[in-house]
Amino acid sequence: MHQLPLPPGPKKKPIIGNLFDIPLVDTAKVFAEWKSLYGDIIYLEALHQRIMVLNSFEHAHELLSKKSYSDRPVPIMLGELMGLDQSLPLLQYSAAAWKHQRKLAHLALNAGAIKGYSDLQAEAVVLFLDSLIENPSDFISQLRLATGRIVLSMTYGVPVKSPESMNFIAELEIMSTIIDKGMMPGAYLVDALPWLRYIPSWVPFNNIHAIATEGRKRILRVIELPFEYVKQQVSSPSPNISFTATCLQAEGGADMEHHIRWAAGSMYGAGSETTMGTILAFILAMALYPDIQTKIRTELDRVVGHGQLPTLDDRSRLPYVNAAIKETMRWNPVAPLGLPHFTIEEDVYQGFRVAKGTIVFPNIWAISRDNISGISPDEFAPERFLDACVQRTALDPYSYAFGFGRRKCPGKFLADNSVFLFVTGLVSTFVISPAVGSDGRHSLLRTPFRQGLARFPESFQVCILPRSEQLAAELQARAREMSKNGDECRSNL
Ligand code: HEM
């Protein structure tokens, strides 16, 4: 097997290999461009760490789903030193803890269970829309709060509109930045040269231990704070219902408590920013493609009623909306390189050696650039998914945007419902347009994207205006009513 060639890739330099070939910005996009040079399977090495990039759906499906490369690379800094190796996304497939946590996540997030969260999702959407009436330019931080509140409320029973939710979400944001950086190959030197972790902290210029201690402290706060909140809650006379509370009441044992704590923390960590990033991509698309926004609104008005907020029951009657949601997941996928998988034994694929210990990235960005429908992949065009509009519809993003095989995202149904409720709520009640400068132009085409494992538009400006004063007043009344009910609920706790 060792005689077989490794897949093609850029020429390696001594010792560092391809370390400096790996782009830090738009990594997935650049890997996709390398298709023309090296093909659909690309091989790289960064300081002896083997990396394989799969630029097509067929290869990703074959290796990650059918051959089931289901392990994860665990970066030394993030995993061992900061302690995140106990979380569901970073546990090894063979670990008993992964099976326990995955089972718990499935219990909370399966297609049936998520129906129970539709009220809290609807509440978070109304509060978000209401916040846009007064503060439309603050839409990014309001959306962060709203998507965080959904996962927080479902996982820990923290009421959607409560001061605790703000504090927990602020902590989560800091942790997400740490994880995002730490998951990219080459992020920390200690990941490539593990012996560095044995160098004592007093050695000058060695900041490994200081970074690890700070990260570990942050991660533990995100895992512990809401968990302790639930433990206090479950002993109160009328505790809030939540995934964690239900699991704690049903199961006993210190081991199980550990699994519940990490499963809940993993869902909370993995579920908020991904949903937010997808909705931000939709908002950007609406500002750039006003005709498509109008088509979505026309369908909503016709099927659901003028300015009415759609519910999940309306979904099956909204083909254009559903195509627009698929298009959002395809146009700017929030996880363009998915989460990396890892090989724990030697393999052979298409005549190439797949070495043990290779990090395998499904390049979701490259997969999403398919040209099957004949419509340019760079364009935002829901029509590519509609039989009536094209001869061959594009590859369905639900088959790749949430990952592959046994590690496929367990939160996909919840995420999909949230995206539906937010984007339809927005278009039903508001009009989104580019914010133009004094020269009458906008700069949306140059929108910066947050880089890392999660990629989404950030710091862009759009005008978000209610469709009418009457609709704005109705939204405000609904939000006030919800706040009143929320306060009454809390005073009963
Ligand atoms: C639009 C939103 C979302 C997208 C695009 C997304 C995408 C992904 C992707 C690509 C993976 C990696 C799958 C693989 O390894 O092949 C993943 C894993 C994961 N996701 Fe999501 N996700 C989203 C929302 C959520 C939500 C709402 C939750 C939970 C509430 C969640 C929880 C998780 C967890 C726990 C994992 C790790 C699973 C494991 O390693 O076994 N995600 N997600």
TrEMBL record:
Its cofactor is heme. SUPFAM superfamilies: Cytochrome P450 (SSF48264). Keywords: Heme, Iron, Metal-binding, Monooxygenase, Oxidoreductase. GO terms for molecular function: heme binding; iron ion binding; monooxygenase activity; oxidoreductase activity, acting on paired donors, with incorporation or reduction of molecular oxygen. Pathway: Secondary metabolite biosynthesis. InterPro entries: Cyt_P450, Cyt_P450_CS, Cyt_P450_E_grp-I, Cyt_P450_sf, Cytochrome_P450_fung. Heme binds at residue 409. Belongs to the cytochrome P450 family. This is Cytochrome P450. It comes from Suillus placidus.
